[in-house]
Design a protein that fits this description.
By secondary structure, the chain is mainly β. The protein is built from no helices and eleven strands. The strands form three sheets. It has a five-stranded antiparallel beta sheet with strand order 2-1-5-8-7, with no helix packed on it. The protein has a four-stranded mixed beta sheet with strand order 3-11-10-6, with no helix packed on it. A two-stranded antiparallel ribbon has the order 4-9.
């Protein structure tokens, strides 16, 4: 798989590794993936990679985590560090290098 999976940050830039803090408890993670991907997998906070359709909406070279049809307000973030890793599977069955978003949810207790 020549093309990489990238995550679009709050600044609008695409990158394979993203880290930021927020006070918003629900977020969507969006980005791009190779158009020839035959599968898309997500890992949240160290869980095993999954192709569960509720975790991601993907196709035509882009993705959204979680799938807005299942979680219309976004992924529920835990207080502190949250890690969302995403990867694409190419037609030969090889997984891309993961793109990783590390999102720190800052709560009133942290301030």
């Amino acid at each position: 798989m020549a093309a990489l999976v990238t995550i679009t940050g709050p600044d609008g830039l695409a990158r394979s590794t993203l880290a930021f803090s927020t006070t918003i408890a629900r977020k969507f993670v969006q980005g791009s993936l190779p158009e020839d991907a035959i599968d898309f997998q997500v890992s949240v906070n160290g869980s095993g990679y999954s192709s569960d359709p509720s975790l991601a909406l993907w196709g035509d070279g882009s993705f959204t985590v979680p799938n807005p049809m299942y979680e219309p307000d976004g992924l529920v973030l835990l207080a502190g560090m949250n890690t969302i890793s995403v990867r694409a599977i190419d037609p030969s069955g090889m997984a891309s290098s993961p793109a990783v978003a590390t999102i720190w949810l800052v709560t009133d207790a942290n301030i």
